[in-house]
Structure formats: structure tokens, C-alpha cells
Design a protein that fits this description.
It contains 21 helices and 23 strands. By secondary structure, it is of the alpha+beta class.
Length: about 700
């Protein structure tokens, strides 16, 4: 808009005659290489600090295959060869900032302004290093030579060739490690940096022993450090081996952005019980405890994420560690002989103790199951897990598989299921997503929003008070008539129930805060349609994203909701973005949250059934979980829409939460009956409350 604020991105462009903008490059020397933002000036400064370098320039080049890599041009006495110069840089910079190619020049030409003339820098040539060719001799040398030729796209590799002199870099080293693993050789990226020639690298490469030959497998700790493409210190490795054997480690990979966000809050309040989920299922029938346990174990064996623990102290950041074999944490209780009151008391105590016990993130499995016999045909199944393992979408998937295994075990028949989606594949897909478009979208979506929307707390907690005082819950069911009317309204205007709830919450925040421009959080499924098999995958794919809503007074309700739904549809393209990253792109000051409330639309059936054919029926379901936010509104569809608020006692009184629920209910009723009305006419207060507020705040204390 005219006179509005613009974000200075550092990009250069020009307007074309047709009105489009042509991107020309960067005004500064910042580039993005393999997901890393790199300041070329920082590398140039490190080069110039070397005593044998007089001047230096670093540029990004592309090879014939489009692979982007860094080239460093240096002028000086040249006494220090490229090997020594690279070693020097590795002591000063991360590996991804060390140029793949270093070229010594007699001088770096300058422009009339006295700056290095980058256009005059010669094209680098990836060629033989000039030494005499030595044919690879051993099997390992021959295997690695073939891999280097493929990865580096060179014609002939000598046993004396240096990986980096032939055009290698830190990214390509990972490709070499992966290809070597496929060829039966175990290497680490660190070893490539340490043993840079083919011959020396072949000496430290170890032959991978087939998994079935575990007794003869002997893998050194040093080799295990980077076996899964991640770099671990000796301390990290010792910590891992203290909890499980090396042969039992199936995979190691990074956390998703949402897991990183959860971990940040969990570590900040380790005793608050946040991001734990406790599911309680009341069962009718006569379950076979042994078959049920074995069915749960089969599900555990099937999915990587359920066999995952977290290495929190890794030097490069927290990692997920998948174990090959893991025993389910399982307990059975028989309370048939107890009096009804004693049963209720003991069940409440067990649920409380189970939740307070929490989980040690470093110790798998991060889930446990208890089966309690209350009566001859009445059972309670308590299933607790950490939300860093899986989301709500995963629960019915697991129940479907659980039923299949349970019935198969009872009938002594094999169970055939589709191969599971590996969580590692999702991690790899996620790391391949470009953040450039996402950054542009979120910066525009949150432009000029500088302060979080105030909920109107009853009190402001001191540091740590929120965790000490704990959480409360309060909910209500909308009546059948209102629920039916909401569904009809949504169908009539081609809207989702989720959009209606977001609109109602935005209006409520508008009235409570007095702000026309409000932001709240929304938990999205995060299951991108372009990831194959995502709908049947088990794991944590959800994300919490900001929803920004303008509430102009004169806009008709229906068109406003349609625009809101379109906005949310557009944001789905970028829902893989980390909330921490999005906040960094916003203008809200560091240290302040983007939002204080979040909506969770739980579109998961409450009447999950284990099938009559299994001799079991779920007759009751309840769950308990907490987030780090002051207020979370959980919406559960059904014949009656259920609204449940989880809130921090340190921020809200129960009376206030009850009033918010009543206001939300009133807002929804007003919306379904006034689709063409202006937003300003939608009341969030019941008529009796509105009259009470008017009379209370207009009473005069003085007599006339």
C-alpha cells in the first residue's frame, strides 16, 4: 500500500515493461548453499587472516549438473599450498563454509573503485592435480575411485588424488559416504576431511558386516561416529552405548521443526508435563491380555518412530535415535475384588502417577500401556506416549493395525499389512524443502504485526509460576441444534467447521483485546499431499502456525469467512516452516511469543472401535495433554461439537474460562443466524450478560 512499510531483503531486481520483476541477484554477498545462509565476506576475512594471503575473494559457481559450490581465489606468496590453506580454514570455519576449490592467483584485479573485480576471476577447472597417476590397487581403493568419479564427475581418479583438490566439498562428502555404504564400505564425512587422499581414505574404510551376522560384526566407535550421516562426539557415542548396543541402533537423524519447538519448551519446563498424551479407553468384553500385549509389541516393531529416543547433547544439535529392537512397557492389574469407591480412587491415583511420571526422552520406548480389569467384562486401557513421537492423526492408524495384529494372534494367522512409511524418509523430504518461498510468504503475511494479541489475563505470572501452578481444563458440548446449524452453515457457504471456529475465535479475541488485527495459533496436520503415503504414516507431522485475521466492522460475515478460508488454504503450502523460524521472520520483538492462544481442531473419531469380531468394544474415551501456551482451545466434532479449554492456572481463573466458553458459544450461534450481517453486529455476549454489563458499568454512584 502507498506509504506502507517495505522489507529490505537485499535482493536486486528490475521492473520489466510488462510489470514483472526480474531477479538479478543480491546486493550484498550473502548466498544460500544447501540450506545454509553464508556470508561470503566472512570466508574472505578468514582467508585474508592467513599470513601467506594478501587478498582473497570467494564466489559461488555451478558445475555442469547445476551443483552449486564455493570457489576461493587468493593472492599472496603461495608458500602455503591449498592443503594447508584448507586445513587452516577448517580450524576457523564450519565445513560447509570451506570452499570446494581454492585457486592461487598472482593478483586479484581491482575495479576503478578499488574493489575486487569479481567478473575478472577465472573459471575454476576441476582436473587432475598434476601428480603422477597411480592406479587404485586394493578393492577398497577401486570402489572408492569409482564413487569419486561418479560424485565428482571426473574421468579418472588416482590413488594419490586429494578429494578436495578434485572438487569435493562437505556436501559431496556426504554423497560419498552414502554411496560407499551402499557399496559395502563404512566411512564418515570426518574421515574424508582427515584422510583426504584416496589411498589413505581406503585404509580407514571398513567393510560393512551383514546385519544377520551380528556375532562377527565389529564396528569401532570412531567409525560409528558418522555412520548414519551425522557427526557425533566420543561423549555422544558413549552416552548412546550406555543405553543400547551399537548393533541395536537402526538409524539416527535430525528432529523436525515442530519437534525442535516442543523440545525447547519441554527442556524449559521439564516438570510441567507438557506434550505428554495420556489416552484412556474403557473396554467392554473379555480381552486376551497376552494377545493384546503382543499386538502392541507388533505395532512397536513396525514403526521407526515408536522405537525412537532422543540424543539431546549431540554437538550438532538434538538427534533422533531409532533402535532395532525394543520391549514394550506393559502392565496388567486386576481390581475386581475392590469396592467401587476403592476402584475409582485407585484409578484416579494411577492416572495421576502415570502422567506425573512423564518420560525420559533419552530412554526408549517413549510410550507405555496398562490394562486394568475393573469387572469381569469391563477394562480400562491406559496408553501414554510423548507427543514428540506421534500426533493425533496417527492414533486411529495404530488402532487399525493393533486390531489386525490382535485378531491375527487370536486366530494364529499371519498378518499382512502394507510396508510402513519410514519416518526417516519424511525427514529427508522435509530437509529438501526450500525456505525461500516460505520466507517471502510469512514475511508478507505478518508484515506490520508487532505485538501479540492480548487475551486479557486475570493475572500475570512471575517467572516459572505457570509451571508451578499447573493447568486446568473446562469444556462444554454445543447442543444438537447449534451443532446441526453450524454444519448446515458450513455446507451452504462451502466452508469447513475449522474455518467457522477460527472466525469465531478471531471475533472473540477482537472483542477481548480491542484489536482489529489479531493473531492466534492453529495446529495443522502438516501432512503434505506431495509426500507419498503420508495419510497412512505414523509419526509427528503436525505444526503450530500463526493465523492472522483482520476484523473490519463493515465486512459481511460470509465473505469474511470465505476470505479467511482462502488465506488458510494458501498457507498450507508453507506449513512445514518452523514456528521459531516464522517468528524470526516476523516483526514481533524477540522474547515475545507470536500468540498466546492456539486452536486444535481434533478431527479424529471419538468412537474408535476395536470391532465386535474381536470381542471388544470401546465404550468410553478420554485423553489428557498440555501445551506450553496459556490457553489451548480443543474442538472435537461429533453429534454435539465439544469445546474444551486447557489453561494455565497462573493466567486464568476458572470463572473467566467458563465465561470465554459461553462467549464462544454465543458467537457461534450469532454467526449461523447472521451470514450477511456486518462483523460489528455479531455479538459475543448473551443478551442477559450484555444487559448486566451495560447496567453494571453505567451505574452512577452519585445521587442527583
Amino acid at each position: 500500500a502507498l506509504g506502507g512499510r517495505l522489507y529490505r531483503s537485499g535482493d536486486l531486481g528490475r521492473y520489466l515493461e510488462n510489470g514483472e520483476i526480474e531477479y538479478l541477484g543480491r546486493k550484498d554477498h550473502q548466498i544460500k548453499l544447501r540450506g545454509y545462509r553464508i556470508e561470503l565476506g566472512e570466508i574472505e576475512a578468514a582467508l585474508a587472516a592467513h599470513p601467506g594471503v594478501d587478498s582473497a575473494a570467494v564466489v559461488a559457481r555451478e558445475d555442469a549438473s547445476g551443483h552449486k559450490y564455493l570457489v576461493g581465489y587468493v593472492a599472496g606468496d603461495g608458500v602455503a599450498g591449498t592443503h594447508d590453506l584448507r586445513a587452516y580454514l577448517l580450524s576457523k570455519l564450519p565445513g560447509y563454509m570451506v570452499p570446494a576449490t581454492l585457486m592461487w592467483l598472482e593478483q586479484l584485479h581491482l575495479t576503478p573503485n578499488g574493489k575486487i573485480d569479481r567478473k575478472s576471476l577465472p573459471q575454476p577447472v576441476r582436473e587432475d592435480n598434476g601428480s603422477q597417476y597411480e592406479a587404485p590397487r586394493t578393492a577398497a581403493e577401486k570402489t572408492l575411485a569409482a564413487i569419486w568419479e561418479q560424485v565428482l564427475e571426473v574421468e579418472r581418479v588416482s590413488a594419490s588424488d586429494n578429494f578436495f583438490d578434485r572438487g569435493g566439498d562437505s556436501i559431496l562428502s556426504i554423497h560419498v559416504v552414502t554411496a560407499a555404504r551402499r557399496a559395502g564400505l563404512q566411512l564418515t564425512p570426518r574421515q574424508i576431511f582427515q584422510e583426504q587422499t584416496l589411498a589413505k581414505l581406503a585404509q580407514v574404510a571398513q567393510e560393512i558386516v551383514a546385519p544377520e551376522d551380528k556375532e562377527s560384526a565389529s564396528v569401532s566407535k570412531a567409525a560409528a561416529a558418522d555412520f548414519f550421516g551425522v557427526s557425533l562426539s566420543q561423549k555422544d557415542i558413549e552416552g548412546l552405548l550406555a543405553r543400547t548396543e551399537l548393533e541395536n541402533i537402526e538409524d539416527i537423524y535430525p528432529l523436525t521443526p515442530f519437534q525442535q519447538g516442543m523440545l525447547f519448551h519441554v527442556l524449559g519446563a521439564p516438570d510441567a508435563g507438557i506434550y505428554l498424551n495420556q489416552q484412556r479407553y474403557t473396554l467392554r468384553g473379555d480381552p486376551d491380555p497376552v494377545a493384546l500385549r503382543n499386538a502392541f509389541q507388533a505395532v512397536l516393531d513396525r514403526h521407526q518412530i515408536l522405537r525412537t529416543a532422543f540424543l539431546l547433547s549431540a554437538e550438532g544439535g538434538p538427534l533422533q535415535v531409532v533402535q532395532r529392537q525394543l520391549d514394550l512397557s506393559w502392565a496388567v492389574h486386576d481390581w475386581r475384588d475392590l469396592a467401587p469407591a476403592a476402584k475409582s480412587e485407585r484409578l484416579a491415583g494411577l492416572l495421576r502417577a502415570d502422567y506425573e511420571k512423564g518420560f525420559d526422552l533419552a530412554q526408549a520406548p517413549l510410550m507405555r500401556v496398562a490394562l486394568i480389569r475393573i469387572e469381569a467384562d469391563l477394562f480400562e486401557l491406559i496408553w501414554s506416549f510423548h507427543l514428540m513421537l506421534m500426533d493425533g492423526w496417527s492414533v486411529p492408524i495404530i488402532f487399525k493395525e493393533l486390531l489386525a495384529f490382535y485378531q491375527g494372534l487370536q486366530a494364529a494367522e499371519p498378518v499382512e499389512l502394507e510396508p510402513p512409511i519410514r519416518y526417516r524418509d519424511y525427514i529427508d523430504w522435509l530437509q529438501g524443502q526450500s525456505e525461500d518461498e516460505a520466507e517471502t510468504y510469512w514475511r508478507q503475511a505478518l508484515a506490520d504485526f508487532t505485538q501479540p494479541t492480548l487475551l486479557g489475563f486475570d493475572r500475570t505470572p512471575m517467572n516459572g509460576e505457570a509451571e508451578q501452578e499447573g493447568y486446568g481444563e473446562k469444556g462444554l458440548f454445543l447442543d444438537h441444534e447449534t451443532t446441526t446449524s453450524l454444519r448446515a452453515f458450513a455446507v451452504r457457504h462451502k466452508l469447513t467447521l475449522n474455518t467457522l471456529m477460527q472466525g469465531a475465535w478471531a471475533l472473540l479475541l477482537n472483542r477481548r483485546s480491542g484489536a482489529r488485527d489479531v493473531v492466534f495459533g492453529s495446529v495443522v496436520s502438516g501432512r503434505a499431499a506431495d509426500f507419498p503415503g503420508i495419510e497412512s504414516a505414523v509419526g509427528v507431522f503436525v505444526n503450530a502456525l500463526p493465523v492472522r485475521v483482520q476484523t473490519p466492522e463493515d465486512v459481511p460475515l460470509a465473505s469474511w469467512l470465505a476470505a479467511l478460508q482462502g488465506q488458510q488454504s494458501e498457507s498450507r503450502r508453507f506449513e512445514f516452516s518452523s514456528l521459531v523460524t516464522i517468528q524470526g521472520w516476523s516483526e514481533v520483538p524477540r522474547g515475545q511469543p507470536l500468540f498466546d492462544s492456539v486452536l486444535i481442531f481434533q478431527n479424529i473419531p471419538r468412537d474408535i472401535s476395536l470391532s465386535e469380531s474381536a470381542g471388544l468394544k470401546v465404550v468410553g474415551i478420554s485423553s489428557k495433554e498440555r501445551s506450553n501456551l496459556p490457553l489451548a482451545l480443543v474442538i472435537e466434532p461429533g453429534s454435539q461439537l465439544h469445546l474444551n479449554i486447557v489453561y494455565q492456572h497462573s493466567r486464568f481463573d476458572e470463572i473467566t474460562i467458563g465465561r470465554i466458553l459461553e462467549n464462544l458459544q454465543q458467537t457461534l450461534r450469532q454467526m449461523v443466524n447472521n451470514s450477511d450481517a456486518a462483523l460489528s453486529t455479531i455479538s459475543t455476549h448473551a443478551e442477559t450478560e450484555r444487559k448486566h454489563l451495560i447496567s453494571t458499568f453505567n451505574q452512577s454512584l452519585a445521587g442527583f
